Amino acid sequence: MNTEQIRAILAEHGRLTTPVEDLEDTSDLYHSGLTSLATVGLMLALEDEFDIEFPDSALSRKTFTSIESIAEVIEELVE
């Protein structure tokens, strides 16, 4: 999974207080300023970019905790 695509979308829609380029793939996005409202915009942008739809089971804080966790869910949905 190309985490650079996720990082670009996160930079545009995540409204983070920490610059995306300063984050590790495992950094906690909520500690970096991600809010529940920003998560909705992020989710919609990811769905558009990867032509997927997040199922209800993936709509949790756990899915959007890190770039790595987002990439794992997207990888499963793309397959």
UniProtKB/TrEMBL annotation:
<protein>
    <submittedName>
        <fullName>Acyl carrier protein</fullName>
    </submittedName>
</protein>
<dbReference type="Pfam" id="PF00550">
    <property type="entry name" value="PP-binding"/>
</dbReference>
<feature type="domain" description="Carrier">
    <location>
        <begin position="1"/>
        <end position="78"/>
    </location>
</feature>
<dbReference type="InterPro" id="IPR009081">
    <property type="entry name" value="PP-bd_ACP"/>
</dbReference>
<dbReference type="InterPro" id="IPR036736">
    <property type="entry name" value="ACP-like_sf"/>
</dbReference>
